[in-house]
Amino acid sequence: MITQSLGGSYTLMVPSYGGLFRLSNRDADAIGKDNRSTEGGAVAQGQALTGEALEKEVWQTLKTCFDPEIPVNIVDLGLVYEMAISPLNDGSRIDVKMTLTAQGCGMGGSIAGDARNKLLDLPGVVEADVQVVWDPPWTPEKISPEGRTLLGIH
């Protein structure tokens, strides 16, 4: 059963295999779905990004990553604590530190992996590292106003 289809991926509940699984849009045909195109300005054109344009695209890309159980992206949930861009000889490196809403979340590796893979798809990004950290602990106060609206929290 598809429990969520946001951010260019599907979250599937497969009880016979023990829980939730993430399926990339590029593999959507495996569940009888068409590949959905992703939107993007410079990314769609394949131009290498640098400076402010890259920073803006990184944040937009992170907003396409979702917790599989919550229909709000990781940026608006307040899960991204730090993002840094470093220039390399052949492109850029992106480092992200993020957390999860609960330390026992079994999807942490999947969420971080999804973010890393999407960052590596950005033109000019040759390295990306997304680490899950627990300090400071996440609290609902970190949710953005947009995220609060989506969740019905006022």
Strand order of the largest sheet: 1-2-3
The total number of structural domains is 1
CATH topology-level fold name:
GMP Synthetase, Chain A, domain 3
Order of helices and strands: EEEHHEEHEH
* Shape category: globular
Question: What proportion of the residues is helical, as a percent range?
Answer: 10-25%
Classification by helices and strands: alpha+beta
Distance between the termini: 31 Å
- How much beta, percentage-wise? 25-35%
CATH superfamily: Fe-S cluster assembly (FSCA)
CATH architectural group:
2-Layer Sandwich
Mean pLDDT, to the nearest integer, reads: 86
Please report the first level of CATH classification, the CATH class: Alpha Beta
Radius of gyration: 16 Å
Q: Let me know the number of strands.
A: 6
Instruction: Return residue spans where pLDDT drops below 50 for at least 5 consecutive residues.
Output: 38-42
Biggest β-sheet strands, sense, barrel: 3 strands, antiparallel
